Amino acid sequence: MLLKDKFVLIVLCLIELEMNQCTGQTAKNIKFRKQEELRANSEKMKKLIIKNDKMSARQNLIKLKDKKQQGTTQYPNALRQGNLKHIPRVTKMDMFQDYSDPTPPSAFADNYISRTFSSYNLKQQLTSIAQEIPNANITIEVIGRTLEYQDILMLRISENTGHRYFRADDQKYAEELPEKKIIFIVHGLKVMGMRDIPCLSTTGSFRVLLSYYTSHLDKFNIFLIPMANPDGYTYIRSTYNEFWDKNVAPQSDCPGVALDRNFDVAWSPNRTISSCSQEYPGEVPFSEAETRAVRDIFHKYGHKIVAFFNVHAGSYHSSVFRGDAVLYPKGYSDTAIDDDKYIDLKGEIDEVIRNASFQVYSVTVDTLYNWYGLVKGSSVDYASTVYGIPYSMELVMQGYDEEGNYYDEDYSYLALNEVWSKVIDVIMSYIWKSIHGNDTK
């Protein structure tokens, strides 16, 4: 081979080698560009995912706020507001909690909106109401705690005169108030039908009823338990079980004890009554925290209590009409005790109802036995028989339809304002006259 040909061959080989190197570098460049494109697309996808997550989170936050405004969240107000240092114990009953505004406006305000009682916010609601009651010293006390860790509250109410008293025996002024007898009132020991009685379940009507009680503070001090069965009240509000009349304490077959059958008077272990019955009296007397709280008030202040009122609804629904009633002992026997004084009271109640121009309306005054039949373990019988409380009564209120009637009248308001205001005034005045003779006040 000639030298020239060898040179040409070498040049051709060099050119081919250079071309192969360029091709390899080009392949590498293409592969790199593809990797960069994939990386960029990946970053774009990540940003898109994050953006979508933020939008989803924002939508979920809006939904959560809407639920909170509708009162459907399962956490207590204090926890949602972030002012608790630790998470409280949340029970099953917390899931039924009502998250209405705990600080409603004044009941005297023109724009006042009556709110339904919430057993979880009851203390705040009562505090707001107590601030608007004139000439009254009101103290809110916790006298017990239910199985579901709800407080059983009692209002101690006395007259606020604003001046010192003159003690005649030593010609000196005395700071302490003259001791008065006590009217002990319990609301909601029986919760069946309580939702249909606004003065037992709403702040506005309760404030009106409270004013009827406090109008007699010049005669008596008042102890008032506004909700003796908060667990049962929460249950009927959450489940709309119209027939429920117990607390929610666990039992052998079905939960709950009928609190007004759990007092230790003529109580007997009737094994024929199942725990599924709304009349189930419990395993033993005072087996429940609610009845023990009421018993302890009798034990501590029984020597000062002159009257006991158990106030509750008369039927499970407003469609069942039995009318208003004032019931007195006994329920465990057809033999009435001190029947004469209650017959005299019946005469005064009948008279005041007639004078109010009611043509067909009346308030029944009768014994527990004649109204219910045989009942054992009632709070009224316990107060009268065991502690000898001079006047022990059930005030049974008829519920009315919230929608009103053909004439758009509010029957619940009329019953409270026209009937019970007069009945309560007659009972209080009658008790005062009976213990002070002819001394009227």
Describe this structure in words.
The protein has 441 residues and is of the alpha/beta class. It has eleven helices and ten strands. The protein has helices at residues 3-70, 77-80, 122-130, 198-201, 203-214, 230-239, 289-301, 339-355, 368-372, 379-385, 411-436, and strands spanning 136-145, 151-159, 165-167, 172-174, 182-187, 221-225, 305-313, 325-328, 364-367, 391-397. The chain has an eight-stranded mixed sheet, sandwiched between helices. The protein has a two-stranded antiparallel ribbon with strand order 3-4. A hairpin with a 4-residue loop joins strand 3 (165-167) and strand 4 (172-174). Helix 5 packs parallel to helix 11 (411-436) and helix 8 packs across helix 11 (411-436). The longest helix is centred in the first third of the chain and has 68 residues, at 3-70. Residues 60-112 and 404-408 have low confidence and may be disordered.
Provide tags for this entry.
two-stranded antiparallel ribbon, alpha/beta, 10 strands, 40% helix, elongated, 441 residues, eight-stranded mixed sheet
Structure, briefly:
The chain is α/β, with parallel strands linked by helices and 441 residues long.
Which segments are poorly predicted (pLDDT under 50) over 5 or more consecutive residues? 60-112, 404-408
Q: Identify the strand order in the major beta sheet.
A: 1-2-6-5-7-10-8-9
- Structural category is alpha/beta
Portion of residues in beta strands equals 5-15%
What pattern of helices and strands is seen along the backbone? HHHEEEEEHHEHHEEHEHHEH
Query: Helix count?
Result: 11
Cα-atom radius of gyration:
37 Å
Main sheet record = 8 strands, mixed
Strand element count:
10
Distance between the termini: 149 Å
Shape by Cα distribution: elongated
Can you give the helix content as a percent range?
Answer: 25-40%
Mean pLDDT: 78
